[in-house]
Amino acid sequence: MVERGGYIAARSDAEAVAEWLAEYRASPRTRRAYRREAERLLLWLAERDMTLNQVRRDHLEGFEAFLADPQPRSRWVGPPRPRQAEDWRPFRGPLSPASRRQCLVILQGMYAWLTEAGWVAHNPFRLMRDKRRRLDNRQGGIERYLEAPLWEWFWGWLTGAGSPATQEGGSPRERYQRHRRRFVFGFAYLLAPRISEMSAARMGDFQRREGRWWWNVVGKGSKTASIPVPPDMLTLLTEWRLALGLSPEPQPDDATPLLRALDGRRGIGDNRLYRLIRETFREAADALEETHGEGAHGWALRLRQATPHWLRHTALTHQAQAGVELRYLAATARHSRLDTTARYLHAEDEAWHRQQSLHGLAERREGRQGADATRDEPV
């Protein structure tokens, strides 16, 4: 029998988890996300003087409840801070059902790896009777996106005449920030990139072949792909380059950053890009409520909830609604499974609603039948 930890050089749970995280060294953003979830579990176990190997099926119920309501709040919840700061906390707030599900999915994978490594004797997640519902993150449709009317309002606010996003007044810095913000959101909506792909993009990633423009991207899992560039994206790229004082079209050997800091030269990282997008959504939400009052509260709430990844979901959902075929939608999304892409198809929801509308209260049914009879009478 293999000694505990016999396949990895680890002397503690933290070191064993570090060995697992090292497998994701080529994907820094994934590694950070996985580290966050593993760290939350290790801290929760430390409070109970438990090790990873001691976790049983019944402990998972308590851990999931903790994710939904981390208490005491003063110990676990706080604003973003550097990891080394005294007031750093592992949570920004309670996790939503989707975030809890994602956390459990990640930890299930971690336990599977640690079991293979001989560090733990079993994977408690495999004992969850409803693990398909709880752990299969592919179940259900996509809900975190902006519906078409809300996106249309947002883009109009961002780019419309007289909006804060397009006013020609202000300092050169403010005008530069408006150009950059417009390009960021247009890029995210038209090509459905992940935020890490946006921050890593280079000018030379946009190339023309046989008269058509393509965006070359290295995505999740270091997979490469070429995505067709629609006309609107090419227009945005040209305008962005002109705002930077560059020629209209990039050259294939241009390795300079696509998205840039305020100096117009240095690139911007994931965190800064994340904050830029969230700040814009919040500003738009304030403008929406100021303009339309209480009637727009629901839409404003959606904007305040929105994250950069909502833009990817929005782009793919709207492409599906526009009639883009599933195989091309999957190629744009760079999904390895068609059932993952199929979550963006809402046709079944629409058909179900139409069918359900045939059922109603008696007086409404009679009214509809009367209207139908009238339509059938000869004129």
What does this structure look like?
- The chain has 379 residues and is mainly alpha-helical.
- The chain has 17 helices and 3 strands.
- It has helices at 13-22, 28-47, 57-68, 73-76, 97-116, 131-135, 148-159, 172-191, 195-200, 231-243, 270-292, 297-305, 308-321, 326-333, 338-341, 347-356, 362-376; strands spanning 206-209, 212-218, 224-228.
- Helix 8 runs antiparallel to helix 10 and helix 11 (270-292) packs antiparallel against helix 12 (297-305).
Report a brief summary of the structure.
The chain is mainly alpha-helical and 379 residues long.
Inertia-based shape? globular
Given the helix and strand composition, which structural class is it? mainly alpha
What is the total tally of β strands?
3
Report the major sheet: 3 strands, antiparallel
Q: Indicate the radius of gyration in whole angstroms.
A: 25 Å
Largest sheet strand order: 1-2-3
Mean pLDDT, rounded to whole units?
A: 83
Q: What portion of residues belong to β-strands? A: under 5%
Helix content: 40-55%
Order of helices and strands: HHHHHHHHHEEEHHHHHHHH
Set down the secondary structure blueprint.
Layout: H1 13-22, H2 28-47, H3 57-68, H4 73-76, H5 97-116, H6 131-135, H7 148-159, H8 172-191, H9 195-200, E1 206-209, E2 212-218, E3 224-228, H10 231-243, H11 270-292, H12 297-305, H13 308-321, H14 326-333, H15 338-341, H16 347-356, H17 362-376
Antiparallel strand pairs: 1-2, 2-3
Helix pairs in contact: 1-2, 2-5, 8-10, 8-13, 11-12
